[in-house]
Structure formats: C-alpha cells, structure tokens
Write a structure and sequence with these properties.
Blueprint (H helix, E strand, L loop, with lengths): L1 E6 L8 H15 L3 E6 L9 E3 L14 H12 L3 E6 L4 H12 L4 E5 L5 H14 L7 E4 L2 H11 L5 E3 L6 H4 L14 E6 L8 H12 L4 E6 L5 H10 L6 E5 L3 H9 L3 E4 L8 H8 L4 E4 L14 E4 L2 H13 L1 H13 L7 H26 L1
Parallel strand pairs: 1-2, 1-4, 2-3, 4-5, 5-6, 6-7, 8-9, 8-11, 9-10, 11-12, 12-13
Helix pairs in contact: 2-3, 4-5, 7-11
Pfam family, one: Glycos_transf_1
Protein name: Glycosyltransferase involved in cell wall biosynthesis
Keywords: Glycosyltransferase, Transferase
Length: 372
C-alpha cells in the first residue's frame, strides 16, 4: 500500500506527534508498505520525506500555499491513502486533508491532542466555512477521552475511531525483579514529559510537595521546556531542591534505566490526550498515577495498573497511598510486569489503521461515484 503521511511537524523536531509519526512510518515500512511523509518542518533530507517549507519567522511549520503544493505532490505520487496528523491547531495538516478531498483520495485524519472548548468552537466555525464534514474523511483519536469532543463537533458524517499510539512493548519490558525500596529509603516518584505550561508542571511540583507532607518520597522529573525556569524558582522558594531533581531531557535508553529505579510514575496533566510516557512506565512495570479524565485511563485501571484521580486532591491521595502501601504498590507492579498493554502494540495499531484506510477508500469511492 502507498501511504502519504502529512504532518505540520516532523523530525528533526522532537515532540509527541513528531516521534509518534516517525515510529508509525518505521513500523509501516517494516510491514512492507511504501510510505512517504510531507511536512512543513525544515531540516535535512530524509528518505521519503518531502519538506514543503516557507521562509517564516522561527521556522514555523506553516506554508501559505500548502494546498497547491500538496495537491501537486498527491497528483504525482498517487498514494492509496493520505494519513493526516493534527494537533489542536495544525494549518498545514488540514491543508493536506483539503488537498486529498480535491484529489479524490481516501483520507484519514488522526487528532493527537485533546480539544478544549476554544478548539471545539474553532472547528465548529471551520465546519461552517469549509464544510469539512463532507470531505469523506475518516477520523481517529488516540484515546476515548480525546475522541469524545471530536465526535461532538464532527457529527454523524465523520466516523471517529480510537486507534492507540503505538509502542514497542517488548523494548520496555523489565528484566530484573520488582523494585522494592529498602526500608527507610524514600519512595522514588518519576515523571517524564515536556516542561510546557499547558502540561502544568508547576502544579506537579505542588502535588509532590503536598504528598511529601504525608509520605517519605523523592522525585525525578525528566524533560525540558519553557516552564523549567518557573519550576526551578518554585523548588528554590519551597526548599524542595534536596529531594526533587530536574535532570533535563533523557534519551529513551536512559528513561528505561530510570524507570527500573522508579516506584511510582505520575502523569497529572488534566488534558493529556494519550500519555505515551505513562504507557512506557506501565509497560516497564511501574504503577501509574494519572487523571481519570485523561487518555491514560484507556490503559490504566484503578487498582490494576495504577490509581486514577478526578482532581488535585485525589491525585495527591493516590501518590500518598502508593508511597505508603508497599503491598499495593508491589501488587500493581507485578501485574504490570505480567500483562502487556497489547492494544498499544504496533501489530494492533497497524491493524487498526488499516481498517480505517479501508473505510476511507470505501467512502472516497462512494463520494467520487456520487459526484459523477
């Protein structure tokens, strides 16, 4: 199958969408598909990657004439399906969806983010202006939590399926015994993610501060981003530098090593559409604490793979419970080690997308037939 992925952002940028799309491309090529990528991100030449770049300030991944460029690319390459990857607002990606509709090509749109009320209002307006619900699209979201607001906007004309982000589960499987924090040693709490204001990392520090009043713990927060300076100020102000570490960004190999030393993983962002770092922790056998309203709830059940909280206070209580209840912590760790999150494995994810591609081809054929 010839597949053309379209994404505003792609390698060499490193973010959730960029890494997940690159991994999907690698997995599909490994399965024998002919896969190419179109992106507005500048960078070095990569095999099968078409960079449609405009000279804009800060290397913004946008092109004012993206529809025309993408339409010409689709006409020359004639993919069997166009797979568009969108965040909350992704102008170049949606230009790809529009170009696919004009070229009468099957198109699947994966939304990788959680639509908040403002975003929902924007897409309601775009629906009225461009009537994108009539383009024959098939939508996917990375979790049930992310799918609900999309379905509310798209209506019945656009099917929206849930296809999880993919993970090489075997690569995260732990090899040693379940970690048992020595008596008298603080429980090690770990968080991994971009330190961006929308992830509310300072709120994470407040959560840890509240939890430490009731439990003996230390914390490592891996990642980098624009909120790092405000986090450092908070740590200094509240005397937390002795037990909270901000080591910066880690490669995947170092994250695996860190998770082998972790007792609890925390993913408290309220609008987490999926939570790939939390999935990696769960696959590595670490109990996970996360928001009940987030996409993490798709693969973490209360008392099974971790604990879920509906608000700040419940998250604090969940961290404290796991930090103070060794039996529960080790029971969850044993469960996570003994069961794989199979719905997030690449074979299952690829099968899910192939079903969506089949549906998109059927819809495109029906749309073309009706238009003749």
């Amino acid at each position: 199958m010839r597949i053309l992925h379209i994404s505003d952002c792609y390698l060499p940028r490193l973010g959730g969408i960029e890494v997940q799309v690159a991994d999907l491309v690698r997995a599909q090529r490994g399965a024998g598909h002919d896969v190419e990528v179109a992106t507005a991100t500048p960078g070095e030449d990569l095999p099968g990657v078409h960079r449609i770049v405009a000279r804009l300030p800060f290397d913004l991944p946008v092109h004012p004439f993206g529809v025309g460029h993408l339409l010409r690319l689709m006409t020359s390459r004639r993919p069997d399906v166009v797979h568009v990857h969108a965040g909350a607002v992704s102008p170049f990606a949606w230009m790809g969806a529009r170009a696919a509709a004009r070229a009468h090509l099957p198109a699947v749109v994966t939304v990788h983010s959680m639509w908040d009320p403002v975003t929902r209002g924007l897409y309601h307006a775009l629906r009225g202006a461009f009537e994108w619900q009539g383009w024959g699209l098939v939508g996917t979201a990375v979790s049930e939590a992310a799918a609900r607001p999309i379905r509310a906007v798209a209506g019945r004309q656009v099917p929206v399926h849930v296809v999880s982000n993919g993970l090489d589960v075997s690569g995260w499987r732990p090899t040693g015994p379940v970690r048992r924090a020595p008596q008298g040693e603080p429980v090690h709490v770990v968080a991994v993610g971009r330190l961006a204001p929308r992830k509310q990392p300072v709120r994470l520090l407040r959560l840890l501060r509240e939890a430490r009043r009731r439990a003996d713990l230390r914390a490592t927060i891996v990642g980098d981003g624009p909120a790092r300076a405000s986090m450092e100020r908070y740590l200094a102000k509240h005397g937390m530098t002795g037990w909270v570490s901000l080591p910066g960004r880690y490669p995947r190999e170092r994250i695996r090593e860190l998770l082998a030393e972790a007792d609890v993983f925390v993913a408290p962002a309220p609008r987490e559409s999926f939570g790939l770092a939390a999935l990696e922790a769960r696959a590595a056998g670490v109990p996970v604490v996360a928001r009940a309203q987030s996409g993490v709830a798709d693969f973490v059940r209360p008392g099974k793979e971790g604990l879920l909280g509906r608000d700040f206070d419940e998250l604090v209580s969940s961290v404290v419970r796991l930090a103070t209840d060794r039996e529960l912590r080790e029971l969850i760790a044993e469960h996570n080690r003994g069961t794989e999150p199979s719905r997030c494995s690449w074979p299952v994810v690829l099968e899910g997308f192939e079903r969506c591609y089949d549906q998109a081809r059927d819809r495109a054929a029906h749309r073309t037939y009706r238009g003749r």
